[in-house]
Amino acid sequence: MLATADHNVPTTARNQGIADPVSRAQVEALDRNCADSGIVNFGMDDPRQGILHVVGPERGATLPGMTIACGDSHTSTHGAFAAFAFGIGTSEVEQVLAAQCLWMKKPKSMLVRVEGELPRGVAAKDIALALIGRIGTAGANGHVIEFAGSTIRALSMEARMTVCNMAIEAGARTGMVAVDETTLAYLDGRSQRRKGGCGTPPLNTGARCAAAGASRAWWNWMPPRSGLM
Length: 229
Prior knowledge:
Low-confidence stretches: 194-214, 224-229
Number of helices: 8
Largest sheet: 3 strands, parallel
Shape: globular
Structural class: alpha/beta
CATH topology of the largest domain: Aconitase, domain 3
Number of domains: 2
């Protein structure tokens, strides 16, 4: 588990603290609860602090094959790393902390394939907006979108994160991109990345052994054979 104070903290003049009493109380409660429970917390004055769905990938805490739940609708951002990542509500956060599981319906899958070179001035956000323009803001309700195709493969990890971040704006539960060399190159050397292997993934379960430190071989194995995407 990883926590950070993001939406409630000021972007400037942090030495003056948090002016809003409700926001200050929330951040103080987060710090206190994480300290009491032994949860890694990037607090307001921690140089690693930031928006959680950016901090996770930057620190190497987001890995392919993980299931990631967080109290932020744009948790779908982590799907750029072939993680099943989705936002949950406060009551569901409590359930995850207590039982490490959630009751939910299995989402449907939707493949969005984008081909060709992007014209000058067109970026990842425009890909998502074009999709929303075609299917509407509820066109992917109840679905997980897999983004594929030569255009997606040509994107940086940051751009893929943008596309997956915006998948929810089309009504999707989350967005995902399969693992490739761009993914692995981004993950190399990230400080939070776990060491060691996790054994051979069972074909019938699609085990999320990334959570225990998945190997490069397992990540490469995922897209063509496992059915995770």
